[in-house]
Specification:
Elements lengths: L14 H8 L5 H4 L3 E5 L3 H13 L2 E5 L17 E2 L11 H11 L6 H21 L24 E2 L5 H19 L2 E4 L2 E9 L2 E9 L5 E5 L2 E4 L20 H8 L4 E2 L4 E7 L22 E5 L2 H8 L13 E2 L1 H5 L9 H16 L8 E4 L1 H14 L8 H27 L8 E10 L2 E2 L12 E3 L17 H21 L13 H18 L7 H16 L5 H21 L11 H25 L23 H4 L1 E6 L8 E6 L14
Parallel strand pairs: 1-2, 1-9, 2-5, 9-17
Antiparallel strand pairs: 3-4, 6-7, 7-8, 10-16, 10-18, 11-15, 12-13, 12-14, 14-15, 18-19
Helix pairs in contact: 3-6, 3-13, 4-5, 5-13, 11-12, 15-16, 15-17, 16-17
């Protein structure tokens, strides 16, 4: 089956404008008669809920956290991209579009990416109007910094807490609509099934996580903005509660799941320190603006550092291998994340890792502190009198102003001062480019069911450039979905309220109740986390940064067996009709166990390397990803058929009219 992405005709620069000019609209009086459910309140879900309510729709918003402001978008650190060209360094809508397609290793849909670049400037204006405190340079204009995969500075930021500030902007917009009664907020509620009536999404079944009550909620359309599935690896930079359940439930009801093997390993994370950990901590990619990544040049020095006989500050410049600057001189430390991650793995696998486990490299700010210190000495008229200590003091102050909260986080976790001793970093699971398949309207293969932000696949191809996640989430919620959902809802203006006392709602509720009761009555011997950790180990060892056919085949078999063991032997204490976090976790891990197998199956079928999907059998002589454009330049969209092993592959062929397919290079 070939999928219809519903991409408008015409030149790429005109598609979105022409499309908006000709779609169906719903007048304000009729919007008051239409209900929309939004699942998730991160940047995508929160901005969508606020905007749809502002337009006049009746919105029901759901989040499993105790407040929308606790959505995981709050953890994003480094910034948000936009093609405003404030630096005058040559940026443009087309260049942002091109960098994004290239960064995704030519596996994204051109029309969606161009639209994303086109609306990016509007996002910044929206956020400034909301009062988001984006950083400003000395003249009062908004400041920009560089991120990986680009030769221009287009990333707007708020120190190292950009996600938090942007989410507070969306949250304040939501609160205005909650106060007006246009958004009905359901905190501590988790979506556990989608209700389809006459072939269209008409509601959800949700569980009140505090009381345990199972509830029916109806609407004329359902929007899923529940984030990604990185926690299938157990250890990731995601919050422990982040899960794939909402996206997986709609997949099991008919929404195709696209490119699950495209998962991003972020190169700048605090390394694993032991089996006790439940999550990993991100160190923003923005640190690579000023931090230089290196390992010792000789094996002897690497061993000495691991054994505690030497410190990194004992090594001279000549004894350090700044391997990203050596291998990729044009981009240096700001290569895309997949490239930087594989390079770190290669150095550590070769024996040059610097922590006790050998799984870490250095991120060093000594050069930046010196550079900024000398600059400040000139500015303050101290360049003739300032000694080395004063230079370091002045430079440290500049670095602290730019990245202080990140340095503070690192010191609290590692108990080392990163201003004086280089940070230790290593790649970790961070973001998922795969997700539910959507067309140009952001609608899944289920009519009336939309997917936005990280929960869909549409904009990043096989690798996401840094600072583009926040851009996509807000673009979808503020500027894309409000148009496209209106075109879908226009025929429903006379439909009236959707009743919940129908056979479809009853069947969906009974399905959820049956699953919950099975877990409560299972009387197994092992906890949910016991199985989740085992799944994570299989995923990391055999479906992680580097994959091969043998390992993937083994992973599929092992995950299938683990899933059967989980359902037979998991123990979930407590009851259904009460607060029961272990029961909520069991439902989420059950979905991860299915998703993990499809993930491995997708990786096995794709006989090429591209972006975050690296098959060891397919690489260039230099160890870079080797694509196969003739056979795999398509979106792999999987249809659920009862179990992951029986999933059916559908293809959306990718057409490149505006960029030339070439082997990606950052040299």
């Amino acid at each position: 089956m070939s999928l219809d992405s519903k991409i408008p005709n015409g030149p790429i620069a005109d598609k979105w404008t022409d499309y908006k000019d000709h779609i169906n609209l719903v007048n304000p009086a009729n919007k008051r008669n239409l209900d929309i459910i939004v699942v998730g309140t991160g940047l995508a879900g929160g901005s969508a809920a606020a905007t749809l309510a502002e337009l006049g729709y009746n919105v029901k918003a759901f989040c499993f956290q105790d407040s929308p402001r606790r959505a995981h978008s709050i953890a994003a650190q480094g910034g948000i991209n936009a093609a405003k060209n404030y630096q005058g360094d040559g940026d443009s809508t087309f260049r942002l579009f091109y960098d994004t397609v290239k960064g995704g290793d030519y596996r994204s849909r051109e029309a969606n990416v161009y639209r994303l670049a086109e609306v990016s400037s509007n996002i910044i204006d929206q956020c400034v109007a909301q009062g988001v405190p984006l950083a400003r340079e000395y003249g009062g204009l908004l400041d920009n910094r560089s991120f990986g995969g680009a030769l221009v500075s287009r990333t707007f930021y708020a120190k190292g807490q950009t996600g938090q500030q942007l989410l507070l902007g969306a949250y304040s917009a939501m609160n205005r609509q909650i106060g007006r009664g246009k958004i009905k907020m359901f905190n501590r509620h988790e979506m556990l099934d989608l209700v389809i009536v006459n072939g269209k999404a008409r509601g959800i079944i949700a569980r009140n996580l505090v009381t345990g009550e199972i509830e029916r909620h109806s609407a004329h359309a359902v929007v899923v903005g529940s984030g990604g599935y990185g926690n299938v690896f157990f250890l990731s930079t995601n919050a422990m509660g982040s899960n794939a359940t909402a996206a997986w439930k709609i997949h099991k009801k008919g929404a195709f799941f696209a490119n699950p093997c495209y998962t991003q390993i972020h190169p700048t994370c605090i390394p694993v320190s032991g089996d006790h950990q439940s999550k990993l901590t991100l160190m923003s990619e923005s640190l690579r603006n000023d931090g230089r990544i290196w390992v010792p040049k000789t094996m002897e020095d690497a061993i000495a550092i691991r054994e505690g006989k030497k410190k990194p500050t004992d090594l001279s410049e000549a004894e350090r291998d700044y391997y990203l600057e050596r291998r990729y001189p044009a981009f240096g430390n700001l290569v895309p994340r997949d490239v930087a991650s594989r390079a770190a793995k290669e150095r550590c696998d070769a024996g040059f890792g610097v922590n006790k486990t050998g799984q870490a490299v250095y991120l060093d700010f000594a050069s930046a502190i010196q550079r900024y210190g000398k600059e400040q000495a000139y500015i303050k008229g101290l360049h003739e009198t300032a000694d080395a200590a004063k230079i370091i003091e002045l430079g440290t102050e500049v670095v602290a102003n730019k990245y202080g909260n990140l340095f503070q986080m690192y010191e609290k976790i590692i108990d080392e001062n990163p201003y004086k001793t280089p940070m230790m970093i290593y790649p970790a699971v961070h973001y998922t480019m795969g997700g539910t398949w959507v067309d140009y309207n952001l609608m899944t293969t289920i009519p009336g069911c939309f997917s936005i932000g990280e929960s869909n696949f549409s904009d990043h191809g096989a690798n996401r450039l840094g600072a583009s996640a926040l851009m996509q989430g807000l673009a979808d919620g503020y500027f894309v979905l409000p148009y496209t959902i209106g075109a879908y809802l226009a025929p429903d203006i006379k439909l009236g309220k959707i009743p919940t006392d129908t056979p479809e709602f009853e069947a969906a509720e009974n399905n959820v109740r049956t699953q919950l009761e099975k877990f409560i009555n299972n009387n197994g011997t092992h906890s949910v986390d016991y199985f989740h950790k085992r799944l994570g180990k299989i995923m990391w060892d055999k479906v992680g940064m580097a994959r091969n056919a043998q390992g993937l085949t083994e992973a599929i078999s092992e995950i299938s067996a683990l899933r059967e063991e989980f359902h037979n032997d998991v123990r979930v204490p407590g009851t259904i009709d009460s607060y029961n976090e272990e029961l909520a976790k069991a439902m989420r891990v059950a979905d991860f166990l299915e998703l993990g197998e499809l993930f491995a199956k997708d990786a096995l079928h794709r006989n090429e390397s591209c972006g975050g999907h690296f098959r060891e059998e397919y690489q260039t002589p230099e160890g870079e990803a080797l694509r196969n454009d003739d056979d795999f330049a398509y979106v792999a969209a999987w249809e659920y058929k009862g179990k992951p092993s029986e999933a059916v592959l559908h293809k959306e062929e990718l057409v490149f009219d505006n960029v030339k397919l070439v082997q990606r290079s950052y040299k």
